[in-house]
Each structure stands twice: as structure tokens, then as C-alpha cells.
Write a structure and sequence with these properties.
12 strands; five-stranded mixed beta sheet; Rossmann fold; 25% helix; alpha/beta; 352 residues; single chain; seven-stranded mixed beta sheet
Length: 352
């Protein structure tokens, strides 16, 4: 059978129903929250934007830290899932349907922190598209604002010719859905294959989704960041502030906006402290503003979205721990600009 290569829009719409089943959000956020809590505290962050926010859990995490948080994604289904997840978690956040290559058209005010997590940049496109995206990020950051990228460490993947990425497997291998990711090498890019195995009626039902991605190494990203005016770059191998290692799986870069004529850049490096290592576990046409009412509850919830295209066992969705949003109600952002100014937008990509 000939392999069908989907464009980014088709790919993310197809996987949206299963996306939260692929990720152990509670354990992932438990590790990543410590990283962002330190950055937020030491840099006095008051506002954040997550680009390629997918189902929105990083936006929820940042809101629970007491800052105004927003997310943007080009997939309508991902935004729909993000809204549902925010309601389940009982927080007030803003999700926007839009293109990350045209951020300055969407927002009139800047952010103290912009994040691009889950290997999102590999789904953006060619180097020209990524350069444009980084420049838009620089335009939307406040003076001294921070930009955090998390991606796969493609220098290691290319060097070792790695094809099989870590799978997502449930505890009971015979009663749940399993996800496997593989890479096919092509000139200057990869074909990412996501294979879904679902145990149904005593047999495995298999679905495959493929799309083209562009790998960017640490050196390439640092060059593009500097050209976009994002400097003072620090690199890590995980969210425990361990220094970057070319032989490890992940890459995290933290950069600061270069002020230029707007003012003097602070002389110090980005304010993050190194901690003792803890094992790490491994996200148009219209602008939509979603102000979601908070729910108060002490019940613990975890969100998991079942696949829409196939019959599965009828289980209640898992939900993340609910929050009372004690830091105060979220006031509707003044940053959002009317979508009328940007009708012909280009597709941006959600995190993986």
C-alpha cells in the first residue's frame, strides 16, 4: 500500500481525538512545572503565550502559576479540545485559532514569556517559515521577554540514524491503545509516521498517519534565534536544568529578547538556577477568544480523549487535578486583534 503523506493541517486534525491518550500529562507537567515556576519567579513573568498549544495543558499549567496565559493553534479540533480541558481543570484561559507565522497581527500587546513546546518547530515548515515565526515571536515579546523552545535533539537523531522514537504504551497492553512513532529519512526532512494500535473485539485495529517534518539542530536553531534578535541563549537536555548533551534525546533552549534601541539589555544571563537532576519524562481564518468559566472542586481529574474514528471501550475520560484558580479571575486579554486584519493565514502546527 502506498504511504499517504498528509499536510500538517490534515495530520493534526486526524490525531486530535487521540492526542491526549499519547501523553501522560500528569507526570509530564509535574516535571515541567518546576522549570517554569523558577523562570517565572526569577524573571517576574506576568503573561505568557504558548504557540502550537494543541490540547492546551501547558496553558492551564502556566495559568495555575498565577499569570495571564493564552494559547494559539491552527487546528480547530485542537482548540476545541483545549477549551474542554480548561473547563475540566476549572481555570480561565484564552485559546485562539490562528497562525504562529502572523502573531503580530493577532496581538497588540507583548508577552513576558512565549513557549513553543513538544517539537512544534519541526512541523512549521522550511527555514524561511521558521525564521518568520521566530521574528514574529521576537515582535510579540516584551523587553527582556523570554522564549522557551523544546524539541527533539535532531543532532543526535541524525548522527545515530535513529528511526524509532519512544512509544506511548498503557499499563495494560492488551486493553488499551498503543502509539508508535517512526522516522523515514528524506533529503533535508523526515517523514513522521504515527501508528495507532487499538485492541478491539480481540484483535488489533491499526491506523497510520504520516506527515513531513523538518529537523533543526541546536546549532541551526541558535543561528536562527540570533538572526531574529533572540539572544543570551542557554541550552538544556531536560527540564531539570541539566546542561545540553548531544547524545541525549531532548533539546531545550531559553533565549531573551534583544532590546536594541528600545533600551539596555540587562547584563546578567537568563535567571535560572541549576538544580539536582531529577529523571525527566518524555503543541486560519478566524481568531477565537475563549473566556472559560471556572469550576470549583477539590476532586482530582485527568483528561483523556478517546479516538473518534473507531469504537473503543466506553470509559470515562481521565482529567487533570482541578484548580480553584485562586490567583484571581482571568480578565479578557486586550492583546487580541480582530481577525479581519488577517484572513489569508498560513497553517501553523501544534506540539507533539
Amino acid at each position: 500500500m502506498k504511504q499517504k503523506i498528509m499536510d500538517q493541517s490534515q495530520f493534526h486534525e486526524q490525531i486530535s481525538n487521540s492526542y491526549d491518550q499519547m501523553i501522560s500529562w500528569p507526570s509530564r507537567l509535574r516535571v515541567e512545572s518546576k522549570f517554569f515556576e523558577k523562570i517565572i519567579k526569577q524573571n517576574k513573568v506576568k503573561s505568557s503565550l504558548d504557540i502550537g498549544c494543541s490540547t492546551g495543558f501547558h496553558v492551564v499549567m502556566l495559568r495555575r502559576m498565577g499569570i495571564d496565559s493564552s494559547g494559539i493553534d491552527s487546528s480547530p479540533k485542537m482548540i476545541e479540545k483545549a477549551k474542554a480541558n480548561a473547563i475540566a481543570c476549572g481555570v480561565n484561559v484564552e485559546y485562539i485559532l490562528g497562525d504562529m507565522t502572523q502573531l503580530s497581527r493577532r496581538f497588540s500587546e507583548g508577552f513576558d514569556l512565549i513557549t513553543c513546546l513538544g517539537d512544534t518547530l519541526a512541523h512549521v515548515g522550511n527555514k524561511k517559515d521558521v525564521s518568520r515565526t521566530l521574528k514574529e515571536i521576537q515582535n510579540c515579546l516584551n523587553p527582556n521577554g523570554l522564549f522557551v523552545i523544546q524539541s527533539l535533539n535532531y543532532a543526535n537523531i541524525i548522527k545515530k540514524k535513529i528511526r524509532f522514537l519512544p512509544p506511548s504504551l498503557p499499563p495494560n497492553l492488551m486493553s488499551e491503545t498503543q502509539y508508535f512513532r517512526t522516522l523515514d529519512y528524506t533529503k533535508g526532512s523526515f517523514i513522521l509516521n504515527l501508528t495507532e494500535h487499538a485492541w478491539y473485539k480481540n484483535k488489533w485495529a491499526v491506523s497510520n498517519f504520516s506527515t513531513k517534518i523538518t529537523p533543526y539542530t541546536k546549532k541551526e536553531l541558535e543561528t536562527l534565534l540570533k538572526l531574529a534578535g533572540l539572544k543570551q541563549i542557554q541550552s538544556y537536555q531536560n527540564f531539570n536544568f541539566e546542561d545540553y548533551d548531544v547524545n541525549e534525546t531532548n533539546l531545550i533552549l531559553v533565549a531573551r529578547k534583544e532590546i536594541g534601541k528600545e533600551g539596555k539589555l540587562s547584563s546578567g544571563n537568563i535567571s535560572v538556577l541549576k538544580e539536582k537532576a531529577i529523571p525527566s519524562t518524555g503543541q486560519q481564518k478566524k481568531s477565537i477568544s475563549a473566556k472559560i468559566p471556572a469550576k470549583k472542586s477539590n476532586a482530582k481529574k485527568i483528561v483523556s480523549v478517546p479516538s473518534k474514528d473507531r469504537k473503543t471501550t466506553n470509559k470515562k475520560p481521565k482529567k487533570l487535578p482541578q484548580s480553584n484558580d485562586k490567583k484571581g479571575r482571568y480578565s479578557k486579554s486586550k492583546r487580541l486583534i480582530s481577525a479581519k486584519k488577517s484572513k489569508n493565514t498560513k497553517v501553523s502546527r501544534g506540539k507533539r
